[in-house]
Amino acid sequence: MTDSITITPSSAPLQATVTPPGSKSITNRALVCAALARGTSELTGALVSDDTRVMIDSLNRLGIAVQESNQGTTLTLEGAGGNVPAEAAELFIGNSGTTIRFLTALVSLGRGTYRLDGVPRMRERPIGDLVDALVQLGVDATCESPGGCPPVVVRGTGLPGGKATVRGNISSQYLSGLLMSMPAAAGAVEIIIDGQLVSQPYVKMTLEVMKAFGVSIHAAEDLGLFRAPGGTAYEARQYAIEPDASAASYFWAAAAIVGGSATVSGLSTSSLQGDVAVVDLLEQMGCKVDRQADSICVTGGKLRGITADMNAVSDMVQTIAAVALFAEGPTEITGVAHNRHKETDRISALATELRKLGANVEELEDGLRITPQQLRSAVIETYDDHRMAMSLALVGLRVPGVEILDPHCTAKTYPNYFQDLCRAAGTA
Ligand SMILES: O=C(O)C1=C[C@@H](OP(=O)(O)O)[C@@H](O)[C@H](O)C1
Ligand SMILES: C=C(OP(=O)(O)O)C(=O)O
Fold first, then answer.
1. What CATH homologous superfamily does 4-21+243-425 map to?
2. Which residues are named in the active-site annotation (predicted)?
3. Collapsing DSSP states into helix, strand and coil, what is residue 278?
4. Atom of ligand 1 nearest to the CA of 24
5. Does 290 qualify as catalytic in the annotation?
6. Domain extents in the chain
7. Nearest ligand by distance to the CA of 412
8. pLDDT over 80 at 203, yes or no
9. Domain 24-229 adopts which CATH fold?
10. Which of 39, 96, 208, 248 is deepest in the core (most CB within 10 A)?
């Protein structure tokens, strides 16, 4: 692919039916649970992307071989029953938050020295709260970059167990990592959340995927406390992965922006993925939403600005921001200070790029206030952030001349995004 792509505006209302690739979050959880299981699991509908590649390569290096078939969408692996076969490993995890957080916890079950590192941006994404929690559970773990950032080194002698307090205001992935590995600890583990817990639907997803692999742990209803007895292995199984709801959001938003409708198959309101709630926000903005048992269709309507606390669905901020440019009245998004620690500082990056497109944007500490104005073409920086590229490309479906730089950054979760978007928009 070239270093930039100029989006062709859509000349007619959308009439798209799309099945996005498999969920990143479910693929990487299912891989971890299968890796810790006794027996052979087969995962179908898996995502093939940078974030799942680094998870698969790392599991291979840890001595848990993952076989790939059906162009990588079927993954077969024999779990190690809660052990880590390799006694030493250097893991390169790119810029995958799920992979580094889940595997830092997983390697603490091993007996050996494991080092986890990634791209320069990953060395700026904090993981100290997770490392602190592991230390409280008796693990020798350290961060090598200032501010509690990777590389992480774990010198494992098995995860002893005990009580740990973990902060949840930067990322829920620390807790998800602990939850998936703690059943295999030598002794009982109790985790207490200190303060606010962001991105809560992802923690519920973790508990559901664990349950699907045969492990139910005690979780307080307010997600403030978790307990597992230790010494438990997951059960291997066949497991079907849902399409990615965050990826689906771009097609629903395209219908909101261009008009017409986008149906996403394979998702429903009972999805494990909290991001399906983006359709509720689109509905508040004036779209019509048809929720079926195996699909959700969004039809565009006259758009109005909204006020939304998006703490639980923070990956959807860029999607809603793109739609907000076409609405009547301002849109205020709050509750997403944690978006400053993702692939880039997503609050500051969005403010910069939305202003280039003509919007009036006030940057808040924990969000943005977007006041739409006359839109204009712009060359959009993507900050090596797939969601900057995928969301702001949607603006180009209405505004001629929107050029997206470094479009291949979508490979993090959606390598064929631009082909699928052009097809859906009828501009292929
Ligand atoms: O657990 C997960 O699968 C994820 C949790 C969220 O991160 P935070 O918990 O850091 O907000 C989300 O942004 C990320 O894309 C995937
Ligand atoms: C924040 C994201 O990813 P991660 O934290 O898993 O790197 C994302 O996919 O938007």
1. Enolpyruvate transferase domain (3.65.10.10)
2. 315
3. helix
4. 3
5. no
6. 4-21+243-425, 24-229
7. 2
8. yes
9. UDP-n-acetylglucosamine1-carboxyvinyl-transferase; Chain (3.65.10)
10. 248
